[in-house]
Design brief:
The protein is of the alpha+beta class and about 270 residues long. The protein contains six helices and ten strands. The strands form two sheets. A six-stranded antiparallel sheet has the order 1-2-3-4-8-7. A four-stranded antiparallel sheet has the order 6-5-9-10, covered by helices on one side. Strand 3 and strand 4 form a beta hairpin. Helix 1 runs antiparallel to helix 2. The longest helix has about 45 residues. The radius of gyration is 33 Å and the shape is elongated. About 25% of the residues are buried.
């Protein structure tokens, strides 16, 4: 008899616990529904930041109310769809503007690309092509389609410098590059060397030239021996224009990547909302 009473008491305790938990669960679900209703009202008013805060509180406060959390997710996806669609319209407008700006700038440049070896072609100012400057020392600035800036340092003479770095000097200041990629061509009487410097190797040297383009700029080639010459006005002008072009190219490349990313995310959201 005593054992029976114990079992009955245990059973009653379990029943009361279930009733208590059910009552608590009903209260939580009711509260979650109230917050979801508030979020829907904010959504209709296009107050999306407030909506997202309310939706986040549902996930944080009521992790076990799965049905309400699913509705919260659906509402969040609708907000994200709107935001990505809005951003795409803005990015499309910016791309059109940048393409128009680029179209007017590239008239002064030659576009060079070897599709077999290059993913991105290069823009070289018409005054700075190798064919126009074959037998002189000069710095050739160029930018690729991603807006990355490069400088080719060419040395032409009857001896070898074997250049590793370049240094530019103006107004008692100087900038020195890191080491670049070296090549050399020799014939019986002449030496033609080239040193290619990417943005990392340039060490801001190209910006230094642009900032000091109105004055006299000395170039010192550093290698097994050194060699000094001065940039011509046309060369400095090419640096200024190539720098401006590289900014537009970089902006355009970034905007196109943003459009690609937003389009993919929008496609995924549309699938979720089907």
């Amino acid at each position: 008899m005593t054992i029976m009473k114990v079992l009955i008491n245990k059973l009653l305790q379990i029943i009361f616990l279930i009733l208590f938990l059910t009552s608590c669960g009903n209260k939580e679900e009711k509260k979650a529904k109230e917050i979801l209703s508030q979020a829907k009202q904010k959504f209709e008013l296009m107050e999306y930041n407030s909506t997202k805060i309310l939706l986040d509180s549902i996930h944080q406060t009521f992790p076990r109310i799965i049905s309400i959390r699913r509705q919260a997710d659906t509402l969040l996806w609708q907000i994200q769809k709107y935001e990505f669609s809005r951003n795409l319209l803005y990015v499309d407008t910016m791309i059109v503007d940048k393409e128009e700006e680029l179209k007017s700038m590239v008239k002064e440049f030659d576009f060079q690309k070897d599709s077999a070896y290059q993913d991105f072609g290069n823009y070289v100012h018409k005054t700075m092509t190798i064919s126009r400057n074959a037998e002189r020392c000069f710095l050739q600035p160029y930018a690729n389609e991603k807006g990355e800036f490069f400088v080719l340092s060419q040395f032409f003479g009857n001896f070898s410098v074997t250049q590793k770095k370049i240094q530019v000097l103006a107004n008692d200041l100087f900038v020195e590059s890191n080491e670049g990629v070296f090549n050399a061509f020799y014939n019986e009487n002449d030496v033609c060397e080239s040193l290619i410097l990417d943005e990392e190797a340039l060490n801001d040297l190209h910006n230094f030239i642009v900032d000091n383009a109105q004055g006299r700029i000395k170039v010192r080639l550093l290698g097994n021996r050194s060699y000094i010459y001065y940039l011509e006005n046309l060369d400095k002008d090419a640096f200024v224009k190539t720098q401006s072009l590289s900014v537009v190219l970089a902006d355009l490349y970034r905007l196109r990547k943003e459009k690609e990313t937003a389009t993919l995310k929008l496609e995924k959201l549309n699938k979720k909302l089907q």
